[in-house]
Amino acid sequence: MRPNGRERSSLRAAAALVVLAALAAPGSGRAAEPAPRKLAVAASANLRLVLLELAGAFERRNPGVTVEPTYGSSGLLQAQIGQGAPFDLFLGADRESAVRLGAAGHARGEPFHYATGRLVLWVAAGARVDPNVLGMASVANPAIKRIAIANPDVAPYGAAAVQAIRSAGLQDVAKPKLVLGESILQVVQFAQSGNAQAAFVPWSLALVPPLAAQGRYVVVPPGSYPPIEQYGVVLGRARDPRLAEDFVTFLLGTSGRTILERHKYALPTN
Amino acid sequence: MDVDALRLSFTLAALTTAALLVIGLPVAAWLATSRWRWKPFVEAIVGLPLVLPPTVLGFYLLVAMGPMSPFGRAWISAFGRPLAFSFEGLLIASIVYSLPFAVQPFAAALSAVDPRLVEASHTLGVSRLATFFRVSLPVAAPGVVAGAVLTFAHTLGEFGVVLMVGGNIRGETRTLSIAIFDAVEQLDYATASRTALFLLALSFAVLVVTYSLRRRPVLG
Which of A26, B41, B116, B168 could lock A180 by a disulfide, CB 3.0 to 4.6 Å apart? Predict the structure, then answer.
């Protein structure tokens, strides 16, 4: 007896239901595995490398958890969060952004200070200017045609660079050479492609290739610009607030601090 | 509104359009008449900027303009500064990026020209070049104008490529679309909306002009 057309289609429907049920209840047959949990982090671009390591360490410690970072400028991320972007946690590059998110009713709990950024001046090897000898005065050297900084209007690292240049009394010679990246990652691109011979970047990005391979850097005197105090905040829209809070505890704890320190961020005293 | 950015965007769009008339018309004329077997490859290259994400195209251009490419090195040794972050660099990038917006309508208009007109001109002893300017081009004029207008509008609204190779320098590489982006990033939505509204109205007007040109009969 072969099933007729109607029976065949109802068989097919039953099979589809079984597949759907299996998809809807993943791991139901393997009760030992923890349910997958996701943490969506809206992060400032300067965190690109350190957050990768922080996320890896947090995931190893919490099986089943995936940390999904999205990088962007604080302004763009704030606009997206304001329009309901599904982020659980915001990690900014300044204090203002996190506070503003709180004031706009998008935060859960208080903003927290997790790191203080440190700025370095990177100079391309090809420019034959040694920043370790010349320091900030490197930017005045004629071999430096273009200096890449993040847009000071939107990026705290860019604002810090402008202030550091001013403190060194070099604004007149440096200003015509400045080119602005929309984020610190674009600053790295300008430097990496050889179009800018000098760049002001977070220390963590100068430690590794491509910048480490293509040039040298000197730490910008910390007193010459206002401290880049980086604040974060758990977002009101968080789907799994406890997971977001666990990550914050991890970030502010010994493991998080060790990783931040290895990436040359200064740590808040608490 | 950022007047410097406005002026810069218009200058860039006008020069890009002019350059693409000069470069695009011969390419389009060749595409419209050639029976070369590798022609699809040329057409594909011309069309690539339509498909490539502008930031990817921009990144390639950034690398090509830098000291890592022979072209970039030659430019730097000739002019003493890299092409990136300069108005000239932006112009070259815009020409590449808007190439299909000029060449494709040009080629479509030129291939619609009745070959009998061209042949008649040839049999009367008029040279190929003179035939192009006196017969083909006037007949194809609405399509050529449409292509030029589209190129202008497209360059005016160009963002990704400018972002990648421009470096956001006031009066040199900060175009209208970059100014809008900056305003949004600074959460200054009032300025962003004003500038964007202006761009929207202008683009709308440009498209209305383009489409009314297309509707006009080719031969009156």
Answer: B168
Chain A residues closer than 8 Å to B81 by CB: 145-146
Confidence of residue A35 (pLDDT cuts 50, 70, 90): confident
Nearest chain A residue to B187 by CA distance is A75
pTM summary value: 0.81
Question: At A63, which CATH number?
Answer: 3.40.190.10
Q: Are A110 and A240 in contact (CB under 8 A)?
A: no
Predicted local confidence at residue A29, as pLDDT: 47
Percent above pLDDT 70 for chain B: 97
> Considering only the top CATH level, what class is B3-215?
mainly alpha
Interchain contact, A179 vs B65, CB within 8 Å: no
User: What residues in B contact A145, CB-CB < 8 Å?
Assistant: 80-82
Q: How far apart are CA B16 and CA B9, in angstroms?
A: 10
The answer, for B191 touching chain A at a CB cutoff of 8 Å, is no
Is A126 found in the same domain as A142? yes
Within this chain, do residues A63 and A94 fall inside the same structural domain, yes or no? yes
Condensed to tens digits (0 to 9), the pLDDT of residues A37-62 reads: 999 999 999 999 999 999 999 999 99
* Cis status, amide bond into B105, omega within 30 of 0: no
pLDDT of residue B172: 87
